[in-house]
Amino acid sequence: MAAKGRITVNEAYCKSCGLCVAACPKHVLRISDHLNARGYRPSEQFTEGCIACSMCAMSCPDACIEVYRIKED
Questions:
Q1: What local confidence, expressed as pLDDT, does residue 72 receive?
Q2: Which of 2, 5, 49, 44 is nearest to 25 (CA)?
Q3: Which of 6, 64, 65, 72 is a plausible cystine mate for 57, CB 3.0–4.6 Å?
Q4: Coiled-coil ranges per the record (predicted)?
Q5: 16-30: b or e for each residue (b if 16 or more CB lie within 10 Å)?
Q6: Which tens digit of pLDDT belongs to each residue from 14-73?
């Protein structure tokens, strides 16, 4: 059974560089349509399928992504 996960993005610090979107092997991230307080469009998880590999977090130059593994019973 594949691992499941979810991410959170600290939108206040995301500069919409897109590195996390490019790094995600499951293509569950995108650049959002709304602007943060600094005028950037933060990344967001837009679909299920995250495997909690942390590639997005490791690629983020501003360390604004946290990855959580969901335990399945």
A1: 76
A2: 49
A3: 65
A4: none
A5: beebbbebbeeebbb
A6: 999 999 999 999 999 999 999 999 999 999 999 899 999 999 999 999 999 999 999 876
Q: What size, in residues, is the chain?
A: 73
Residue-level pLDDT at 2 = 63
Check residue 23 and give left, alpha or beta (phi > 0: left; psi -120 to 50: alpha). alpha
What's the Cα-to-Cα distance from 25 to each of 20, 50, 53, rounded to whole Å?
10, 9, 9
Q: Can you tell me which residue has the tokens 């307080």?
A: 37
Q: What is the pTM of this model?
A: 0.88
